[in-house]
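Ticket #4471: structure output looks truncated?

Reporter: J.K.
Steps to reproduce: submitted the chain below (599 residues) through the standard prediction queue, then opened the result file.
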Amino acid sequence: MPVRQLPETIVNRIAAGEVIERPASVVKELVENAIDAGASRIDVFSDGGGRRKIVITDDGGGMTHADLAIATDRHATSKLDDEDLMQIRTLGFRGEALPSIGAIARLSIATRHASEPHAWALGVDAGTRAPIAPAALNHGTRVEVSDLFYATPARLKFLKTDRTEAEAIRDVVRRLAMARSDIAFTLAGEERAPVTWSATLPGAAGRLTRLGDILGTEFRLSAIEVAAERDDVRVDGFAAAPSLTRANALGQFLFVNGRPVRDKLILGAVRAAYADYLPRDRHPIVALFVTLDSAEVDVNVHPAKTEVRFRNAGLVRGLIVHALKDGLAREGRRSAAHGGGEALDSFRPSYAPSFTPRTNWDWRASPAAPAQGFAGGFGERAQAGFDVGAPSADIRDDIDAPTDLVDRPLGAARTQIHDTYIVAQTRDGLIVVDQHAAHERIVYEKLKAALAANGVQRQILLIPEIVELDESTVEKLVARGDELASFGLAIESFGPGAVAVRETPSLLGATDARAMLRDLAEHMAEWDEALPLERRLMHVAATMACHGSVRAGRRLKPEEMNALLREMEDTPNSGQCNHGRPTYVELKLTDIEKLFGRR
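Returned output as attached by the reporter:
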């Protein structure tokens, strides 16, 4: 078959297949054009999931007659001042969006520039362009796309339902709205009720307002501001406290120089920063904005411009990890307090009383009135039905208990219930502490600090403990012997199906070596060589901390409870254990009073 030049219409349709994957791709390209045009308000309308109609209206600068005449030609753009592709400062720059859309759909553009006496309109139908004609439009640009993919019907077969495509459009607009909180957005269509995100004030407060409008009040209440800067690279934004997570990474929104992107490098950095706070099957919610010189990032590696490549990827990754870790450590205790709202909800009755109180009721006439001689007081012994036994430990009457501890952040211990939870009183509320989760975090942070300083102190067992395991587990543990030794756990093979434990970390005290080694082996089975040594060591530390902590079911003395509270106050990230569970819940006195109608 001889080589031949493809017709321009076919070339445009092939190019459209790279840029326009679905209706959401059209919305993305057109909204980006509106942003680049300096719009302060952008309205988006879709019908049939964008298949039947998409309308984008903005109040930006608009185009002149001369601009409109070549706007639908391939590679015609107003976004590049010169031919330097390493100085991209706009969202759109390829000049492919309008000709690609016009090649596969019916495209109509009405636009007015401030220097023109009136607006101009242009229509393109499957690549065939109509003459430019005068039009009525106050200012800005209005782009209407109808019958998407009608010129390439094969692509229609791969589109999903109208509702799914409409949700993809919504996701695109949400991301662009998060990137530019200074622009007002309206999103409407048959598939949804109209939603408007008003423009906000500049700065972090305005950005958080926009993020809260899109991600919800729960994110706004738990959001932690993060920021870091080094070598002209800046990372800022907001990250949800570890108490607010999702089952997938769809709640992680990343922006580079105002461009929404999906970048594996940044996602990996977020995962590393939260590794000490979340279980492996939970993912944080973050909105991070990376700002750097346009010459230091390549945004031209994907036709849809959804991926980027950094010149100094290590610097960007390290800065993101530092910013997130610093913010999470700074707000470590605050995040645990957010669980109080859920705790309060569990106390509220789920039914409404079906009776009306009587104002003239006399308790003495009740059949349940106390017997003669009771005198109406509560000083006698309780009825048998209410005799449920004493709490595990109660120090309300301990005359030696310090009274000024209620002014400390975690208050003064008052009792222990179910041999597991410590109840402490603060000046303005009460706190319930999970003693095992709290001590687990304390031991974990001590192990990390010891490893970073002079190494973990170890204790030599007088008689080595022999732990029998299956052969494959023994091989895994022995192969990682050097890493375990760095934490003070010295083991060696003891035949084909056992290991001998000769030294253990002194921080752990007496521990169940068999259970700890089994857990370590399970974690190691999930590692690969790509996992950095630091992360592997932290997994070891987390497992050891769990086995070296105060267990649930252990009765604590009053001084032990208060000592645990004080250690929590001095320990970084004490709001969660190293598995991501909260270590305590705080209930404010005002909220408790509301439960009982006192407020």
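Triage note (M.O.): checked the attachment and the full token line is present. Confidence is low (pLDDT under 50) at residues 350-359, 366-389, 528-534.
Status: closed, working as intended.
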